[in-house]
Amino acid sequence: MVEKLSNLRDLQVLQLEVVIFNLPDLVRLSQRLKRLRLISTNLTEIIAMPAVEDLKESFEGLKVFLFWTQANQANRRAFTRFCIENIPTLQVVGDFANEFCTVNDFYLNAETLIWPGSSDLRHFTLDLNYEIIPTDLHTRFKKINHLKIIWTNQENSDDKKPFRNEELLKKFKKITSLDLLGVPYSTILSRFLNKNSYGSTLLALHVTEVGNHHVGLTYNQVFKDCTKLEKLFLDVDDSAQRITEKFPPLKELKLNLQRFKRNSRTLWDVLKAPKLEKIELMGELTYPEDLDKLQPLLARHPRSLRKLKTLIVNLGWTDDTDRIEEKKVSFEKTSRFLKVAMEELKGTLTGVKFSLNDSCEFLQLFNCIENAATIMEIVTSLGPSFQNVNSGDFYWLYDEELIDYLISFRIIHFTT
Is the same domain home to 407 and 309? Predict the structure, then answer.
């Protein structure tokens, strides 16, 4: 395969995410593909570090290097840093530091002037479970504009020691997106979001609570400080507050429905953001009947969701328990919600994707069943309810009207 790929001399994007390369083969391939600007693939569990000169020669024009590997944390981090230190053209190494980014966000043909000793790095992830804050980070990598900070120490989640040099993380001049995983709000996170730090310049924010440690961040607090925000995912427990702050120009919103309380005013209010173009709903509401209460928002509220172009719903059915009756109710309510949305918003809505979990898109499942080619891995990923693969077992999932709607609004070239 490497030999055949090496004949594609003008190749700029190598996106092979079902293939596993050993690093020496990938380095040799890249040496022959001088126009390569983006790589997205998998690496073997053993990462053998190449010689510095070989790496520089192979990846000298590379801008984005996304890789997944089962190598241990130490080896992964070491290789990532090795690339950052030696390939100044790289903007992203390992993975995006912004959950909203895709490979389509990069202008691969744009040439960037890089002075000797400088770096074009834009995405940086700092895992404080394993690393300390480098004292020279902001001076060596001045172009970083996407910053991700991870802190998942469940034994002592209020420990401030990893953040004792937090001021160093607030010295970047171009930050437009923050991804904060497990960072405590009361002690640390609030100081990253205030208007004297990054709040006034942020365009994207992704905050995730970890375990039982509650961040305590609310939509009102975010909207007060982040007035330019366009993309938001608050994966935190619902405060049940009414939203009283003025909406920023939100265009993209992700919601973990499992975080919201029953009859949540927060959920109702945040969907009224007037400039929303894309919504992603993940998981199930604890009380699925609350979806019925969102339907008037679609049909009657004159300003709600009138610019929506993309709607993504993923029920996340991967649980280990049967829950067959709960799943029936959840599917029925979700189906009704989707049909109302596609009917009421058909003037602007151009794409809808409905999945039962990350491995099973709803339309894909029924295409398999109708063609007698059910893919076992897809079906069994839905949980114990689906272990016996028989089309007759899916009668309660069959909704012809929903299928017709989804075909009409199907996202042909979908990027996550």
Answer: yes
**Are 100 and 238 within one domain?**
yes
Same domain membership, residue 245 and residue 100? yes
Q: Give the integer Cα–Cα distance in Å for 177 and 182.
A: 16
Instruction: Give how many domains the chain has, as a whole number.
Output: 3
Q: Is residue 284 part of a domain?
A: yes
Residue type, 68: W
pLDDT, tens digit, for every residue of 264-273?
Answer: 889 989 999 9
The bridge status of strand 360-361 relative to strand 351-357 is: antiparallel
Both tokens assigned to 63: 């801008």
Same domain, yes or no, for 283 and 362?
yes
Residues of the chain scoring pLDDT < 70: 107-116, 154-164, 186-187, 300-302, 319-322, 368-394, 412-416
Q: How far is CA 64 from CA 41, 58, 104, 376, in A?
A: 11, 13, 11, 34
User: Which H or E run contains 329?
Assistant: helix 324-344
For 207-259, how does the pLDDT look when each residue is reduced to its tens digit (9 = 90+)? 998 877 777 889 999 999 999 999 999 999 888 889 999 999 999 999 999 99
Q: Answer yes or no: do 46 and 136 share one domain.
A: no
**Alpha-carbon gap, residue 338 to 352, rounded angstroms:** 9
DSSP string, 97-157: SSTT--GGG--TT------TT-----EEEEETTT-PPPTTHHHH-TT--EEEEE---STTT
User: Are the beta carbons of 191 and 166 closer than 8 angstroms?
Assistant: yes
* Sheet of strand 64-68: strand arrangement: 13-21, 38-43, 64-68, 92-94
Contact assessment for residue 354 and residue 406, using Cβ atoms and an 8 Å cutoff: yes
172 and 81 in a common domain = no
Structure tokens at 156: 């002592």
Q: Note whether residue 363 is domain-resident.
A: yes
The amino acid at residue 31 is Q
Give CA angle at 66 (33, 167), nearest 5°: 130
Q: What is the extent of the structural domain holding 32?
A: 1-95
Same domain, 55 and 122: no
Exposure letters 240-259 (e unless 16+ CB within 10 A, then b): eeebebebbebbbbbbbbeb
